[in-house]
Amino acid sequence: MSGSQPGLGAAHASSRSAILDLIRAAGTISRVELTRATGLTAATISTVVRRLIDDGLVLEVGRAESTGGKPRMLLQLDPSARYAVGVHLDHAGITYVIANLGGAIVARWRRPGAGSDDPATVVARIAAEIRTTITRVGVDPARILGLGVVSPGPISASTGMTLTPPVMQRWAEFPLGAALEDAVGLSVLLDNDATAAAIGEYWSGGIATGSAFAALYMGTGIGAGIIVDGTVYRGSSSNAGEVGHICVDLDGPVCWCGNIGCVEVLAGPAAVVAAARDAGLELPGRNVAENFGALARAASRGEELPLQLLERSSRYLGVAAQTLANVLDLELVILTGPAFALAGSLYLPEIERRLGQSFFARGSHPVRVTISSNAPEAAAVGAAALVLQSELAPRQAGLRMPLELPLEVTAG
Amino acid sequence: MSGSQPGLGAAHASSRSAILDLIRAAGTISRVELTRATGLTAATISTVVRRLIDDGLVLEVGRAESTGGKPRMLLQLDPSARYAVGVHLDHAGITYVIANLGGAIVARWRRPGAGSDDPATVVARIAAEIRTTITRVGVDPARILGLGVVSPGPISASTGMTLTPPVMQRWAEFPLGAALEDAVGLSVLLDNDATAAAIGEYWSGGIATGSAFAALYMGTGIGAGIIVDGTVYRGSSSNAGEVGHICVDLDGPVCWCGNIGCVEVLAGPAAVVAAARDAGLELPGRNVAENFGALARAASRGEELPLQLLERSSRYLGVAAQTLANVLDLELVILTGPAFALAGSLYLPEIERRLGQSFFARGSHPVRVTISSNAPEAAAVGAAALVLQSELAPRQAGLRMPLELPLEVTAG
DNA sequence: CTAACTTTGTTCACTTGCCTAAGAATGCCA
DNA sequence: TGGCATTCTTAGGCAAGTGAACAAAGTTAG
Q: What residue ranges carry the coiled-coil annotation (chains A, B) (predicted)?
């Protein structure tokens, strides 16, 4: 809420974005269906779609079967019309992705993390990586919309981002966005991993435009990206969805955040690994992720102790997911991120069970739970989707609308 | 998500609503400030404000001090331009309110609750109450915008409302809205008490348009009304903010909702009263509310056991508030509803403490906590505000916008 | 006191997004 | 082959918002 806001008036081109988004969500769709979905007239749809086709974003692909008259022309996004680069920055590793308009991954690679290197050095490395791969893959640079960069933890709008306290402290005040824009020559968007993962799912998962869902992301920390009606829910300081630090046990251990009984300190990967160590298990991995993976494999094989530990963790995550669903009235929760990539199938049943018991699951609608199809690089894919979305839905952040209408009862 | 949606295109008159809402939030404001806040041009503001003045909704009240040129004309809502009736329907009692555009209460009264009476009888009683009071107070019926009706628990869009399972079961399938519209002759809006209380605070509390806040409502149950950017957050089935049934103790008692360790069963008024009884305390009241009030007074006097019980309850509610703030990234939590009206000051310190420790309280922004100034009839006032708001911001529910832009980094 | 300047607010012609209405295109079926 | 249904396009009009010029009402400098 800083300074003068773009506000209303900038709300134009919104139907173009809405239509593009519907085409994305549907995969292939006809003009008639677009009129029904948007509420716009056939005439408007016609002209807007014409412009989209002229701009090369949309293709006419064949015709549907006739329903008694002229058959509908089917529309689709042209996947190779635009591209975006996504980068997931973590101290464990940097994941790169180049994605096209269809949400498909054109290139994907991984390099060692930032570690203790100087931020400027890392930025130069990232820029070189991206440039060489773009030429190698043969993507027309003019069609690349931008670069999305994603990292764990809360972000600060001013400086760029504040990473989680324990690690990468020196990045806190580094102007990452501006530096990368200079180095790579692309416009840069910054966001946190959970939000990006949610957009990634929204983008490539064919999720309907009107739904409310969350991506529960477990990686270094535990967070949630929340998308409502096709819009990211950000809250008052862009830090919504901080699931890792909700309290699920008033008598629990102290978390590094200062509170007691946080989900993260009770059930996060680091906590699970630490508990295994305390119980006397030998863990050979060099970091938490590796050890967590080893525990997940051991649990899958049926080993007693790992199984117990992961079951305990999944109970807490079930509570967190249920809390999220209760507060936000979600209809879908997607498990994603590196930790769920390793152990998602162990967590799924318990989380599913709890959400099935949820207050409204019986009354109004069920809460579905799924595991992301690309959980390991969900954040990087989401970073790219972030950029794609910002092109398809170029909407000012400050645009605000007045209060929504409550349930209206129309008199007989 | 049913059928064809109103969709885009119906987005007109939105700037009129936005401007009206800004005038409401500011109390008094000039045209120049409106241009800055909305992003619209001075020309647009001029014409829209002219229409608002012609319609009698806005008044020009004096001029501001000159800043070197022509002094600004100050604008204000005309409080007596419009009125709305609010009704809070609970089995304990029915609270009525007539409020004006300024959010001020013109009339307020209370009658015995629905009890076990026939719904049709109750509707007739309500209609008679409202009609006689309108004439008694002398409000011009033509200036009454409508009737807001509010009750605890989740609502079903189809039939009207579903009240909480334990009581008033026979109301579940009664078409309350339609019946009231016929009987009273006003258009009727239905919603739940927590949401209404939140709008009430938003309306009369002078809360800024851009903020994210929640009204934590403790009455029969525990719920939260969530308002983001001046819009009610409703979720996918209008049941968002169900705080009462989030789990805060995995080893806790079973709740009537089927889950374990819900806030409501651990810390709700009924739970506090039951615990007091179990501990051997004599409680003379006829219902939970009276006994809870007695306990609150005893605790204020410093009696040991009541104090302990309420402190225990406030710890759980602190967790709930913190969870809400973490998930939604709130900047303000308002305690309201009958229970907080009785014991708010006993709850405030602990809730404040917890939110002060919250993850982002230190990093980005504090989370403020206040007690509603009119907690006892917050729901009824909110019911009226609901109607006022629906006039000031006549926005279609189905209007949906594509994804919001993430943090953009502008190069050099 | 007058002239120049600043800031506020209004008027008017123009653009743009969307709508209504009419018509063109393209298939099915008698 | 000629209706008929359905899809899509084109043409004219309305309304919201903009930009630019202008009018109004104050302050400040001479």
A: none
Rounded, the Å distance between the CA of A17 and C1' of D2 is 43
What is the spatial distance between Cα B40 and Cα B21, in angstroms, rounded to a whole number?
15
- At A64-92, the pLDDT tens digits run 888 888 899 999 999 999 999 999 988 77
Mean pLDDT of B384-394: 82
CA distances to B24, B165, B378 from B205, rounded to whole Å, are 10, 33, 11
Residue A100: strand pairing partners = A83
- Provide CB contacts within 8 A for A401, sequence distance 6+: B14, B18, B229, B230, B231, B393, B395, B399, B401
What rounded mean pLDDT belongs to chain B? 84
Two tokens, residue B229: 């950017």
Flag whether pLDDT at A370 surpasses 60.
Answer: yes
Contact B85, B129 (CB under 8 A): no
- Which residue of chain A is at minimal alpha-carbon distance from B184? A411
Residue with CA nearest C1' of nucleotide D24: B70
Distance in angstroms (rounded) separating the CA atoms of residues A210 and A230 = 6
Tell which of B123, B245, B405 to mutate to test the A interface (max A CBs under 10 Å). B405
Domains and CATH numbers, chain A: 14-77 (1.10.10.10), 83-198+380-392 (3.30.420.40), 208-372 (3.30.420.40)
* Locus of tokens 């690679």: A109
What pLDDT, in 10s, does the model give residues B128-176? 999 999 999 999 999 999 999 998 866 554 444 554 444 556 666 778 8
Instruction: Supply the angle between the helices B14-26 and B378-392 in degrees, to the nearest 10.
Output: 140
- Which of the pair, A124 or B203, is modelled with greater confidence? A124
Query: How many CB atoms within 10 Å of residue A253?
Result: 11
Euclidean distance between CA atoms A334 and A382, whole angstroms: 13
DSSP character at residue B378: H
pLDDT score of B375? 87
Say what the pLDDT of residue B292 is.
Answer: 96
Task: List, for residues B94-132, the tens digit of each pLDDT value.
Answer: 999 999 998 899 999 999 877 777 888 989 999 999 999
Q: Which residues 317-356 of B are in CB contact (within 8 Å) with A? A: 319, 322-324, 326-331, 354
Residue B228, CB, strand D, below 7 Å: no
Q: Is B305 touching A (CB cutoff 8 A)?
A: no
pTM as predicted: 0.87
The CA distance from B14 to B31, in Å, is 17
**Residue B392 pLDDT exceeds 80:** no
Q: What is the rounded distance in angstroms from the CA atom of residue B248 to the CA atom of residue A326?
A: 13
| The pLDDT of residue B7 | 30
What's the token pair of residue A145?
């919309």
Q: How far apart are CA A55 and CA B336, in angstroms?
A: 53
> Looking up tokens 């309850």, which residue turns up?
B313
CA distances from B195 to A365, B24, B230, B384, B386 (A): 20, 19, 12, 12, 9
Q: What pLDDT is recorded for position A9?
A: 30
Burial of B327-347, coded b for 16+ CB within 10 Å and e otherwise, reads bbbbbbbbbbbbbbbbbbebb
High-pLDDT (> 90) share of chain B, %: 59
The predicted structure's pLDDT at residue B156: 53
Separation between Cα atoms, residue B126 and residue B139, nearest integer Å: 18
The spacing between the Cα labelled CA in B25 and the C1' in D24, in angstroms, equals 29
> What are φ and ψ of residue A38, in 5° steps?
-90, -30
Average pLDDT for A35-52: 92
Residue B113 CA to residue B90 CA, distance in Å, equals 6
Q: The tokens of B319 are what?
A: 């967790």
